[in-house]
Amino acid sequence: xxxxxxxxxxxxxxxxxxxxxxxxxxxxxxxxxxxxxxxxxxxxxxxxxxxxxxxxxxxxxxxxxxxxxxxxxxxxxxxxxxxxxxxxxxxxxxxxxxxxxxxxxxxxxxxxxxxxxxxxxxxxxxxxxxxxxxxxxxxxxxxxxxxxxxxxxxxxxxxxxxxxxxxxxxxxxxxxxxxxxxxxxxxxxxxxxxxxxxxxxxxxxxxxxxxxxxxxxxxxxxxxxxxxxxxxxxxxxxxxxxxxxxxxxxxxxxxxxxxxxxxxxxxxxxxxxxxxxxxxxxxxxxxxxxxxxxxxxxxxxxxxxxxxxxxxxxxxxxxxxxxxxxxxxxxxxxxxxxxxxxxxxxxxxxxxxxxxxxxxxxxxxxxxxxxxxxxxxxxxxxxxxxxxxxxxxxxxxxxxxxxxxxxxxxxxxxxxxxxxxxxxxxxxxxxxxxxxxxxxxxxxxxxxxxxxxxxxxxxxxxxxxxxxx
Amino acid sequence: xxxxxxxxxxxxxxxxxxxxxxxxxxxxxxxxxxxxxxxxxxxxxxxxxxxxxxxxxxxxxxxxxxxxxxxxxxxxxxxxxxxxxxxxxxxxxxxxxxxxxxxxxxxxxxxxxxxxxxxxxxxxxxxxxxxxxxxxxxxxxxxxxxxxxxxxxxxxxxxxxxxxxxxxxxxxxxxxxxxxxxxxxxxxxxxxxxxxxxxxxxxxxxxxxxxxxxxxxxxxxxxxxxxxxxxxxxxxxxxxxxxxxxxxxxxxxxxxxxxxxxxxxxxxxxxxxxxxxxxxxxxxxxxxxxxxxxxxxxxxxxxxxxxxxxxxxxxxxxxxxxxxxxxxxxxxxxxxxxxxxxxxxxxxxxxxxxxxxxxxxxxxxxxxxxxxxxxxxxxxxxxxxxxxxxxxxxxxxxxxxxxxxxxxxxxxxxxxxxxxxxxxxxxxxxxxxxxxxxxxxxxxxxxxxxxxxxxxxxxxxxxxxxxxx
Lengths: 469, 469
Prior knowledge:
Helix content of chain A: 25-40%
Largest interface: A-B, 95 and 95 residues
Oligomer: homodimer
C-alpha cells in the first residue's frame, strides 16, 4: 500500500477503475504483488489466482461504493475474510478486485437478553468468544481455523459443536448485504424466527460471495454451560465407534461434541500432541449441562460405548485436561502434516447419512490403502461429516493425480449413499465439478438465482454455480 | 367429482385446460361449486376466492403433469394441504387450479439411525407421530391445527416446541419440488448438513407455494425423551413472567416448551377447559430429559419463577395431567371463541426480540382496551412470538375496521422493536401489505427470485411477494 508498491502496477489503462477506487479509499487500495499474492487463495492445495487489486474498506458504505465501481466497469468483486478457505473460494479466476473485510472487525452490539450479537464480518470466532467471556454467553461454531465470521457465513461453516448447536445455517439471525448493484439490504429482522417471505438469510449463508457482500451479521449466541466434561474412548473398529455414536443420539443424550478419529489420525496425534491414547478408532466426547446432568450424560454414554466394545472411558473433567484434549483435536491438521515431512496437506470433506458413515469411512480407508496414499481421517461423527487430510508431495504429478482421483471417488461414494460432496468446506472452485452430479436440475435453479441477482456476473464469478453452457 | 358436479361447470371454452386435466386424472378433477368453495381459504377471517377447478393428484409425476398444463395455458396453480392457513394462502385471487395434495399422504421411509423420515406432503403432523410411536422417535413441530407437513413446510410453521427443537426451517432436511415448468428437483441430499451450493431447501421452506409444489419432504425427527414433566406458574405481571422466561434460558435450562398466556386467555381456558389456575399472566413449562435431568430442570425453573414473583409451581408429571394441560393450551383458540358467542376468531401473530416481548404485549393489551376490542393473547415466549385471537363480529363493518387497524398498529409496533410481522403464520394475502415496510429493498430481491423461477407467474400468484409496480 506504499507508494513503492504502486510501482508494480499494470498500466492504469487496463484498470480504468483504479483511480475511482483511490479517490474513494486513498491508500486503502493496493496493487502490490505481495498483497495481491496474499489474497490469491486459502489454506489448501489449490493454486488460486491473484486479484488485480485489493481494497480495505472500513464501512458498509465503502463496500457499497466499491461494488458500484465494480458494476460500472464490469469488473469482478471478491470478498475476502481471513484467507482460510479450503476450496479456493477467493481465487480471482477472472481477475478483479478483492474486498478484504478484515478491517471491518467491530462487535456492534451484544444483546444478552435476546441471545444475539451484531458484528462486522471481519470479526473472527475467537475474537467474538473473547469479547463474550464476561457475559455468560458463547458462540459455538468452530471450524479448524480462527476464521472470520463473514467467511464462515459465506461457506456455511460448522465444526465440532454442530451436533448440539447447529451450523452457521442455524446460528445466523440476520445479515446486512451489499447487493451486486451496490444497494444495501437486511435479510431479516432481529426476531428469533419469522415467516415473512423468502428466507434470504439462509440464501446468503453458504452463497460464497456470489450474490453480494455480507457487511454485518446478527448471530445467535448460547449460554455458557454451568458444567462441561469431556472423555475419550477407543474402539476396535470404525463400525463399533459409529454404532456408539448412533446409539448415544438415540438415547437422547444431548452430547455437545462427539468427534471421531481413525487409527492413523490417532497415531499422528500421539506423536504430535503427546496424547497417550491408543492408535485405534477413537471417539472424543464433550457434555454440557449442570454438574449432575453432565455426570449423568457421561455415565450413559460410557455404558453405550462399553456395549459397543469401547475400552476405558477416560475422563477429562478439569479445564486443563479438556483443553489439552481439544487442542489435540484442533491440531489434528498439523499432527497429520508431521506424519510425512515434506508433504502438503490436502484437506477434503464429505457428509453422509449417519447410518452410512462407518461404511463410507471403511471403504475410503481401503481405497487409500489401494492407492498407496496416506490420509488421516477425522469425523464430526454426530453429523455424518468426515475429513481426510491427504499428505501429498505437490511436486509429484502422479501423486497429485492419484489424490485427485481418490477425492473424486470419495465424492461418488458419498453421493451413492445420498450424501453431499461437502459438509462444511463449501464448493469454491475445488468442488465445482461435482455440483451437477450432486444436484441435477436443481443446479439450473441456482443458476437462475445467480443470474437474477447478479446479472453482470461480477460477484465472485466462476465459483459455486457451474457453467451450464 | 361425480358426473352431477360437472354440471356446475363454466363453459369449457373458458377453461381450455380442463379436458387435458380430465385426460390426465379422470374423475380426480372437480369443478363442483362445493369442492371449489371448500378450497377457497383457510381457517381465518379472510374471504378467500375459489379456484376454477380442484385436482387430486396421487404422485409427483401427476403433479408435474398438472403444472405443465398450467404453464402451457398460463393458468395459476395453487397447492393445498389441509386448508388450515391463517393468512389466506390458498385464495385463488386470479382463478386457476387448486392442487389438493391431501391424497399424497404416504410415509415413504423411516430411517431410525439417521433420525429422518421421508414423507409425502399430505401427511399431517399427528399422522406422522402416530406412525413413529413405536420407533422411539417423534416430530416436534406443532402448530395449532393438525396441518399437513406440506403446508407446514410452505408456511415455515413452528409451534410450542420451537424453543428447543426449532421450526420447520430447522427440521426440513430436503425437499422434492415440482418447478413452475414441471421439472422435478431435489433441493438437497439426505445428509444432515451440507455446504454444497445455495440452500434451496431453506428457500422453499416458507415460500408458500409461490416457487413450485413440494411433493416429498425429508424431515428430521428426534428421540422421544425418557422423561417429560410439565408445570404451570402464575405471575403478577406480564413483565415478571417474561423476565422468568429470559432468565430460564440464560440459566441454560433446555426447556422444551415455555408458553405464555395472558389473564384474558387464562380466564377463557378456566371456563372452556376447566383449568383451575388463576386468571393471571401464566407460564406453561415442559421439560424433556432423563428423570433426574427433568427434575433438576424443573427445580431450577421454579426457583427462577419464584425470584420473579411467580406463585406456586404446579406440577403435571403424570401423562394424564400433562395431556390435560397441553390440550387446554392447544384448545386456547376455541376457549377464546367461547368468550364471546357469535364472534369469529381473527388470529394474528408477530414476533419480536425476547427483550421486547413484555413491552410489546403490554402495549398491545393497552391498545386493545382503548379500541374496545377483546383478544386473548398466547405467546411462544421463548421465541418472542405472540398471538392475538381477536373476537370480532364479522357482520359489523366498524368492528372489522377497528380490528384491521389494531392489527396494523401491532405490526408497526413489532417493526419498531426490530420484530417481524409474522413469526409463524406466513404472509399469504393477509400480511402482504406489510412486506415492504418490513423488508425494504430486500423485497426486490424476493421479487427477482420469484420472477427468475416462475417467469409465467403461475405459482400461487398474488401471494408473499407484493406488486412492486
